[in-house]
Amino acid sequence: MKCSEAQSLFSLYLDGALTGAQMQHVSAHMVECVPCSTEYRQLENTRRLIAGLGKRPAPPDLALQLRIALSLERTKSYRRRWQGMWVRLENSFNAFMFPATAGVLSAVIFFGLIIGFFGLPVNSAASSDVPLALYTPPQLNPSPLPFLTTIGNNEGSLVIETYVDANGRVGDYRIISAPEGAKDLIPRLNNLLIFTTFSPAMNMGRPTPSRILLSFSHMDVRG
What we know:
With 223 residues, the chain is of the alpha+beta class. It is 50% helix and 20% strand. Among the domains are: 3-53, no CATH class; 135-222, TolA/TonB C-terminal domain (2-Layer Sandwich). α3 packs across α4 (34-53). It starts with a helix and ends with a strand. The model is unreliable at 122-127, 144-154 and 219-223 (pLDDT under 50).
């Protein structure tokens, strides 16, 4: 038996884990080989010294340290798991945001076009077709009566807010501003408004009451 082969079996020889034939070969080799015999005795002495030390008692806080270590490792595992889930969620959200943003932008443009279409002004000289605008203000009609009067003077203008009903007739008014001596103009103003008619305001194609501001300066109003 070679020295290397015998030395590789020393630990098993000490433990008695070799077969009978192997133990005989190792014993015969150590009788003939002084270096291997010396190394075996050193290994045997080391084993004896270690056995004499006995078992070292575990520290009293070993269980606590183990629980802390396990808790930290579990926390790291959860953190890595949540980080992975967050990355996947963020990637999914980013992939969803582009088509969603494009859809919202398209909807805004579409509704803007619709509002712009319905909000187009209607030509006042158009025929009796129903206007497409959502709301059109009242329009003053020329009076069919031969009426002559003068409202206002050279010193200022008379501004009134007129209430026009759904039939285009003046229901009431209030004076916003008036020149000096406006009290003398009230009777003539009342007579003028009696014979004044309007094309009523239209809301979604239907006549509706409204208010309109009228300004009178030094002028003649003829029917």
